[in-house]
Write a structure and sequence with these properties.
By secondary structure, this protein is an alpha+beta fold. The protein is built from 16 helices and 16 strands. The protein has four domains: 192 residues, no CATH class; 100 residues, Beta-Lactamase; 76 residues, Helix Hairpins; 152 residues, Histidine kinase-like ATPase, C-terminal domain (Heat Shock Protein 90, 2-Layer Sandwich). A five-stranded antiparallel beta sheet has the order 2-1-5-4-3. The longest helix is centred in the N-terminal third of the chain and has 54 residues. The protein is rod-shaped, with a radius of gyration of 48 Å. It starts with 7 loop residues before the first helix and ends in a 9-residue tail after the last strand. The relative contact order is 0.05.
Length: 579
């Protein structure tokens, strides 16, 4: 029987349960036995009665000791049922087969069916039939001590009839009880399987909901939150215990009233929302989110709540901004290239003509100054045109894996030469973390990027202060963060949004193409540029470039074995910018 095949804690419970019923039965049997002996006309041997009842109570004590000793459940259950059967058989022997004691065999039969199944029930029923039938035979042979039937009973043949009825009753009870026990066990197995399947399904659903990369809120028809997931806690900045069981509007607070209102409308039988974008406040941050809300319905189609799925769109917004920036830079580049081409040819003719005139004419005073001004300004215009063309014709990045330590040493050498020309009052340092850091870049373009940022930093400090260039691996291992940090006055927050727009500059002689060029080089490397404040004051520009993706290639060696230490670095495919 399935009930008997359970773990240790369940075994102890079953034996103790049966032990409790047997204790009540033993007390009842003792009271009835002594009462019947007192009123019976037949002399029931006291010694036999005491031995039978003592054996019954002794079996209770032995069972309890067996439970403490951790004996097998099935063994203890069988021992208890067997002890009861033997004790009842002894009482039947003492009081005779014509007393009511044979009916007590029904209890061990039912106990056997319930706890141990059909087979044990039939064994106990057969034993009861043998003991009862044997009692009739024993009486006929003079082996029974008491329980003589009346002369009328003997004349009518009732003793034999009653004995046969009892035997049939025991066998029938064993069959029916065993069958019902098996049906019960089968139903318990099915219930256990259904419960296990339900538990697995709930666990799977819980794992899915807890691990999806979207926030989840489930509400009932009254707008009370019944379910959240960890991502929703992260996006909303509210712990689950502060939301579950609370009205959504009060749980989210006034800062997220718009978000709560969108969901509440769906509960009020409004049309589901497939996509809606809004902004919520989380502390001091403004977080853009996209939310989809659907109805929860019962079998009859009645709305019983709503489910909201939402995502943090910060990265998506940043990507959109970057795409718009790239499109704008590309458009400006094309325009700059065409304008520069149209200006460069007549400018060359003008400058050549002025140089010829300067060599042939004898000018003095103000005329000489004007001629020099023309040459100087035409040279400056030519420089601007060259900057335009460099910005517009940026070639695709030819990337290769380089050692960051060696690369930064070369960049630092060029920056020192520039600093030396301007008074050598800038303290330059560089660092790499980890020391063996490698990155996939176009060295020529990245040198230009560092020089642009370093020269801007030196000019912001007026060539006095500390300048640090660094290459570090991001904590998540996805990016190589190349930083240029200065100790200058920093950049006002209201100016940071316009830093990378072409032709926007705060310098008197700047073209406004230096930082846009930095942005274009970063874009060419599938990277991004971030601006912040240095911990020591000043500004810090961080260019994030994806780390090279390492792909292990297993190649057979000469002996036909595989050398797993051979690897190649995959750099032809740029990773997606979801970080």
């Amino acid at each position: 029987m399935a009930v008997a095949e359970t773990g240790a804690p369940k075994e102890i419970d079953l034996n103790r349960e049966l032990l409790m019923w047997r204790l009540l039965f033993a007390i009842f049997l003792a009271v009835v036995s002594f009462g019947l002996r007192a009123v019976s006309e037949n002399q029931i041997p006291m010694t036999g009665l005491l031995l039978s009842l003592v054996a019954l109570f002794l079996s209770l004590a032995v069972t309890q000791i067996g439970i403490w000793a951790g004996l097998s459940q099935r063994f203890l259950l069988g021992f208890q049922i067997g002890a009861d059967t033997v004790c009842i058989a002894a009482l039947v022997h003492l009081f005779g087969p014509y007393s009511a004691f044979p009916l007590l065999f029904c209890l061990p039969i039912l106990f056997g069916a319930y706890y141990l199944g059909r087979r044990v029930a039939m064994i106990v029923a057969s034993a009861a039939a043998v003991f009862t039938g044997g009692g009739q035979v024993g009486y006929a042979l003079g082996w029974i001590f008491s329980g003589t039937p009346s002369q009328m009973d003997v004349a009518l043949g009732q003793p034999v009839m009653v004995t046969m009825i009892l035997i049939l009753l025991f066998l029938l009870l064993g069959l029916v009880g065993g069958h019902m026990s098996e049906r019960y066990a089968q139903r318990r197995r099915l219930q256990d399987q259904a419960a296990a399947q339900m538990q697995r399904a709930r666990s799977e659903v819980r794992n899915i909901l807890d691990n999806i990369q979207s926030g989840l809120l489930i509400l009932d028809q009254n707008g009370v939150v019944t379910r959240t997931n960890p991502v929703s806690e992260k996006i909303l900045g509210i712990p689950a215990q502060n939301m579950v069981g609370q009205l959504l509007a009060s749980a989210l607070g006034p800062e997220k009233a718009e978000f709560a209102g969108v969901i509440q409308k769906i509960i009020e039988s409004k049309k589901p929302i497939a996509r809606h974008e809004l902004t919520i406040t989380r502390g001091k941050e403004e977080i853009p989110i996209g939310v989809s809300v659907s109805h929860l319905e019962d079998k009859s189609g009645q709305i019983i709540g709503a489910i909201a799925i939402f995502q943090d769109l910060t990265d998506v917004t940043r990507m959109r901004k970057r795409i718009r920036e790239s499109d704008r830079l590309a458009g400006v580049g094309e325009l700059a290239a065409s304008i520069a081409h149209e200006i460069r040819n007549p400018l060359g003719s003008i400058r050549g003509s002025v140089e010829i005139l300067a060599s042939e004419l004898q000018l003095d005073g103000q005329h000489t100054q004007l001629l020099e001004l023309i040459l100087k300004e035409s040279a400056r215009v030519n420089t601007i045109i060259n900057d335009f063309l460099s910005f517009a014709r940026l070639r695709p990045a030819s990337r290769q894996v380089v050692d960051c330590g060696e690369f930064l040493s070369e960049v630092a050498l060029q920056i020192r030469q520039h600093v030396t020309v301007h008074g050598d009052r800038v303290r330059l340092s560089h660092r790499v973390d980890p020391p063996d850091l490698k990155v996939s870049i176009d060295p020529e373009q990245m040198v230009q990027l560092f020089l642009n940022l370093a020269i801007n930093a030196c000019e912001a400090m007026e060539y006095r202060g500390d300048l640090v260039i660094a290459a570090e691996q991001s904590p998540d291992g996805k990016w190589c963060e190349m930083k240029v940090q200065d100790s200058g006055p920093g950049i006002p927050e209201d100016s940071q949004s316009d830093l990378f727009k072409p032709f926007v500059t705060t310098k008197k002689t700047g073209t406004g193409l230096g930082l846009p060029m930095v942005a274009r080089i970063a874009n060419a490397h599938a990277g991004i540029v971030e601006v912040g404040e240095s911990p020591t004051g000043g500004a810090v520009f961080c260019v994030k470039v994806p780390m090279p993706a390492k792909k292990k290639i297993v190649l057979p060696d000469d002996a036909g074995q595989f050398d797993e230490s051979r690897t190649s670095v995959k750099t032809d495919k740029e990773p997606s910018l979801t970080g």
